[in-house]
DNA sequence: AATCTATCGTTTGTTGAACAACCTATCTTC
DNA sequence: GAAGATAGGTTGTTCAACAAACGATAGATT
């Protein structure tokens, strides 16, 4: 109850400027929970994302996988290694292109993913516990749509955002 | 082999399972844009968050700052160093506690933040460009509320989430 | 007052992810 | 079959997160 009480300034001032912080907060919490839940899955949430795409989509190659998840190729290498070692997916030579590998899920991989998805869905409800239930879905949906749009327009650098200095001109007069 | 068709499970299942990915996507884009915009600000978005709290709130100490932003104390040290070197904030000895430092913004810091906030707000509209304008605010608001709730309940590890193995029992028969 | 413990801020070391650069094998084109 | 492009893999650098230890100081105990 001291003078340092945060409520002393208008709430919307604080609100407006911390969208990035809010996102980070939510994502971090999601990440913590999911990492905890998916300890057994190689590379935790990372492996989960990859496994999910492998199971749910017919992925042509590793390169396509990387593009779809917007992650670096070099990451895929070792995650897929470990996922494969765990018997969840397999790397099969592509008969049409001997450079390429087709990554396919094993039955065990499918089961594992199904279980993981159940848990993650549950965890997500906790992550969004601060929101009434109906708004959670709204939030997920908005996030998904915003993300899709960003992913569709890959080059994130937009020339219409002018880049000068944020700093005000140095006041040399003093 | 159409059995592996991704549509074999309800579409919302797929949606539901990449909430983390979506969040990551949006946050990454936010981060990229803001880093670009705030190149001149020491430590980019990090410095921005800290400066924002310093300017907008009467922050008792560095420790309080760390708690408010949910970041590690050790991060604050060097970011504040550089923010101070840039003349945006000052570290003043707390007269009541000589261990503590009061971090206050300079006039230049206030101006810089104001400009930075303008830019960030603009960038955020681009980040959420995939959403119709009215929904952007909904999204921000939901994110803010979810984040606040998470922040309020700091211990992210929730005992109600049982932690067993995601992996199905090893099938030794084949 | 002497001392013990907790706290503030700083420093250091470890870990893990992101990313770039380079390598090998293969495909495609000429 | 040589040249360049592409798939995948390896290595090394950079950076943020985090834990742990440290010096200085405050507050409590004796």
As an assembly, this protein is homodimer
Structural class of chain A: mainly alpha
Shape of chain A: globular
- The helix content of chain A, as a percent range, equals 55-70%
How far apart the termini of chain A lie comes to 41 Å
Q: Give the low-pLDDT segments of chain A.
A: 1-16, 155-164
- Work out the helix count of chain A: 7
Beta fraction of the residues of chain A? 5-15%
Largest interface: A-B, 88 and 91 residues
CA-based gyration radius of chain A: 22 Å
The H-and-E topology of chain A, N to C, reads as: HHHHHEEHH
The total strand number of chain A stands at: 2
Largest sheet of chain A: 2 strands, antiparallel
Mean residue pLDDT of chain A:
81
Biggest sheet strand order of chain A reads 1-2
Structure description:
The structure is a homodimer of 174-residue chains. Chain A has 174 residues and is mainly α. Chain A is built from 7 helices and 2 strands. Chain A has helices at 11-16, 19-37, 44-56, 62-69, 73-85, 107-127, 133-152, and strands at residues 89-94, 97-105. In chain A, strands 1-2 form a two-stranded antiparallel sheet. Chains A and B meet through helix 1, helix 2, helix 3, helix 6 and helix 7 of A and helix 1, helix 2, helix 3, helix 4 and helix 6 of B. Chain A binds a DNA duplex (30 and 30 nucleotides) through helix 5 and strand 2.
